[in-house]
């Protein structure tokens, strides 16, 4: 069956450290993968998109990698801050036209001061 | 620049009733997707509308239906509500995508509680 897993429901790290979140999938062949941030009671906010032929993407303190052989994406937040505390969702796009996204369950990140 | 607007923000309905949720997409966006997000889970795709037609549908029963208007706004209708329909309903808009992927712009959602 098709499945998306994100590492541990919750992740606690100390301020200033690098947070690494994992998205693993089985039986999908995504055209690209996205990461979103979601705060309680709010809709997800788009952060980064990485295509199947890209290995790495960066945006300020954020970095995402995509390994289609391992069927895994890693999402890194360097120099983490308490304001980075939120739930982070990975989403697989199953076609190039963005008509069908499948979201993972999310990882709740808490950055402790 | 207004983002995606959803109404109402909260709603309480009784089992068996019908509900209509509304969404205005971000300016310049013509594609609207609806998602259901249960507590502690990721959003689940319901359907997507483009040019006033349902373009793709997720694994949801026919009780879930929608509509898109000429101004690109959209409605989600749910009939014969069940307790399990209680969730955050999210609307996401994007420009028409043909060969490139875009990040969705999500609204803040409508929290539906069925009692």
Distance between the termini of chain A: 40 Å
Radius of gyration of chain A: 13 Å
Number of continuous helical runs of chain A: 0
Total count of strands of chain B: 11
| SSE sequence of chain A, one letter per element | EEEEEEEEEEE
Dominant shape of chain B: globular
**Could you tell me the mean pLDDT of chain A?**
91
| Fraction in helix of chain A | under 10%
Structural class of chain A: mainly beta
Quaternary organisation of the protein chains: heterodimer
Report the uncertain regions of chain A. Answer: none
Describe what you observe in this structure.
The complex is a heterodimer of chains A (113) and B (115). By secondary structure, chain A is mostly beta strands. Chain A contains no helices and eleven strands. In chain A, strands 2, 4, 5, 9, 10 and 11 form a six-stranded mixed sheet that branches. In chain A, a hairpin with a 2-residue loop joins strand 6 and strand 7. The model of chain A has no long low-confidence stretch (mean pLDDT 91). Chain B is mostly beta strands. Chain B is built from no helices and eleven strands. In chain B, strands 2, 4, 5, 6, 9, 10 and 11 form a seven-stranded mixed sheet that branches. A four-stranded antiparallel sheet of chain B has the order 1-3-8-7, with no helix packed on it. In chain B, a hairpin with a 5-residue loop joins strand 7 and strand 8. The termini of chain B are far apart.
Provide a short characterization of the protein structure.
The complex is a heterodimer of chains A (113) and B (115). With 113 residues, chain A is mainly β.
